């Protein structure tokens, strides 16, 4: 939360635009990865099932062919030996061969491993402890069928998974069968898995590239917006600086005129009256009275000037009295009815708050008097029960387009000045206005804002 609070508005907007994009891309990437993984698993299962079905059909055809080859020899003298010789000569590839076992487990023919002929392998078991030959003979006795088992591959002399198909030849008490090694399908499945992983990796890279492009695009947009706002802010700042300097010069010129035409002339007149009283003793009393009146008038003039610089009422009687006096001065000028209302229980305010709210009110009343052509202007200072403070200035004048005024660098300086004073206090300034609908300015400070201003 502290890091978020420390970010600028542009930084927050950048993050608010960036985070949903990254979150969406992450979700898309997860969904794509999940879908591709499931698709790869289904493809793996389908390929394996298709391969196994094809191999089963192939094995059955081989065994049917072998049975049809030896069947005419049944019952003939020497038929067994001739059948074994024929089966020994049949093969289909380096590792495709037939084998014949007696139903008691004795090897009768094995074209690739002739050293096994004559051995009884009934108790032969694979590394998992499964009785290999017993499974094959059991399946043959049951009417024939498929058996998956481990057997040493002739071409590599290594154990490999094998799918066998066996049938019984009951006339001779044989088990006749053949088989296909399955390590080829495992290699094919491995290639499919590697291809699927490569596809998933490529998809993730594309998603990452899209994410980088999106971040770059948002960053470029934010940079362009930042530069545009920076140039606009610089133009407004230069215009405001010129306005401030011009206001200072105008104020100095006004004070110089007031001092020269008012105070200076009054002091000169007073000095002459006192000198005349010194030289004319007979009329000294009358001249002294005139000089006293002139001094009182000069003192009032000085008080008026000092009040224009900073109202004494703001320091002596507080903000409510100063606002009422300010509204009274505008009301005395005629043409518009100015009124101030104070609501709630008054509390002592920090100097910064009093000065800022007084100047904001002064600017608002000045704008209403000069531009609004209003018949009535109301100022409300409300002390909230929760410790906050609200200042409202409303008029029934002609209103204006605030956005258009703010968009032009050399216009809306008074409004920007009021906003800057409010921002300095942490206050919320809102302006509701439109052409022909009057204006309502509100400045709200919470109890926390007042506490920070007093610190």
Helix content: 55-70%
Integer count of domains: 3
Q: What is the overall pLDDT average?
A: 80
Task: Compute the CA-based radius of gyration.
Answer: 52 Å
Uncertain runs are: none
Structural class by sheet pairing and helices: alpha+beta
Quantity of strands, as a count = 10
CATH superfamily of the largest domain: PAS domain
**Shape, principal axes of CA atoms:** rod-shaped
Termini separation comes to 23 Å
CATH hierarchy class name of the largest domain: Alpha Beta
Beta percentage is 15-25%
> Number of helix segments?
12
Main beta sheet: 5 strands, antiparallel
CATH architecture of the largest domain: 2-Layer Sandwich
Helix-strand pattern: HHHEEHEEEHHHHEHEEHHEEH
CATH topology of the largest domain: Beta-Lactamase
Strand order of the largest sheet: 2-1-5-4-3
Report on the structure:
61% of the residues lie in helices and 16% in strands. It has 455 residues and is of the alpha+beta class. The longest helix has 97 residues, at 183-279. It has twelve helices and ten strands. The chain is rod-shaped, with a radius of gyration of 52 Å. The protein folds into three domains: 1-181, PAS domain (Beta-Lactamase, 2-Layer Sandwich); 231-292; 311-454, Histidine kinase-like ATPase, C-terminal domain (Heat Shock Protein 90, 2-Layer Sandwich). The strands form two sheets. Strands 2-1-5-4-3 form a five-stranded antiparallel sheet. The protein has a five-stranded mixed sheet with strand order 6-7-8-10-9. The chain has helices at residues 2-6, 9-70, 79-89, 132-141, 183-279, 284-309, 312-316, 319-332, 351-372, 402-407, 413-425, 447-454, and strands spanning 98-102, 107-110, 145-152, 159-169, 174-181, 337-343, 376-383, 389-395, 428-433, 439-445.
């Amino acid at each position: 939360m502290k890091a978020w609070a420390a970010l600028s508005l542009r930084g927050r907007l950048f993050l608010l635009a960036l985070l949903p994009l990254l979150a969406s891309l992450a979700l898309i990437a997860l969904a794509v990865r999940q879908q591709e993984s499931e698709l790869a698993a289904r493809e793996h299962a389908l390929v394996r099932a298709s391969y196994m079905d094809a191999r089963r059909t192939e094995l059955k055809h081989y065994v049917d062919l072998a049975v049809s080859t030896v069947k005419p020899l049944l019952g003939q003298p020497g038929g067994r030996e001739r059948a074994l010789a024929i089966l020994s000569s049949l093969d289909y590839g380096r590792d495709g061969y037939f084998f014949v076992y007696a139903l008691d487990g004795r090897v009768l023919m094995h074209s690739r491993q002739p050293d096994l002929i004559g051995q009884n392998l009934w108790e032969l078991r694979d590394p998992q402890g499964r009785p290999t030959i017993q499974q094959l003979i059991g399946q043959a006795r049951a009417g024939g069928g498929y058996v998956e088992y481990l057997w040493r591959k002739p071409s590599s002399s290594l154990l490999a998974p094998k799918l066998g198909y066996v049938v019984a030849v009951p006339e001779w008490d044989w088990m006749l069968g053949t088989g296909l090694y399955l390590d080829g399908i495992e290699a094919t499945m491995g290639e499919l898995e590697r291809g699927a992983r490569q596809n998933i990796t490529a998809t993730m890279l594309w998603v990452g590239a899209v994410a980088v492009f999106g971040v770059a695009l948002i960053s470029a947009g934010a940079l362009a917006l930042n530069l545009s706002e920076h140039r606009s802010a610089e133009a407004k700042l230069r215009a405001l600086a010129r306005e401030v300097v011009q206001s200072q010069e105008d104020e100095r010129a006004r004070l110089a005129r007031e001092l020269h035409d008012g105070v200076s002339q009054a002091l000169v007149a007073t000095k002459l009256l006192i000198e005349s009283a010194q030289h004319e003793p007979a009329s000294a009393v009358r001249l002294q009275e005139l000089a006293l009146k002139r001094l009182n008038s000069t003192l009032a003039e000085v008080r008026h000037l000092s009040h224009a610089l900073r109202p004494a009422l703001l320091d002596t009687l507080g903000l409510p009295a100063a606002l009422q006096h300010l509204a009274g001065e505008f009301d005395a000028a005629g043409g518009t009815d100015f009124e101030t209302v104070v609501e709630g229980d008054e509390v002592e305010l920090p100097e910064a708050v009093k000065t800022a709210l007084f100047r904001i009110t002064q600017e608002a009343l000045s704008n209403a008097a000069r531009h609004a052509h209003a018949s009535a202007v109301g100022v409300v200072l409300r002390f909230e029960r929760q410790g906050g403070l609200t200042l409202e200035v409303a008029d029934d004048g002609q209103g204006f387009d605030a956005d258009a005024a703010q968009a032009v660098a050399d216009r809306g300086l008074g409004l920007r000045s009021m906003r800057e004073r409010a921002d300095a206090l942490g206050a919320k300034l809102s302006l509701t206005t439109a052409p022909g609908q009057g204006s309502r300015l509100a400045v709200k400070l919470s109890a926390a804002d007042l506490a920070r201003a007093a610190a």
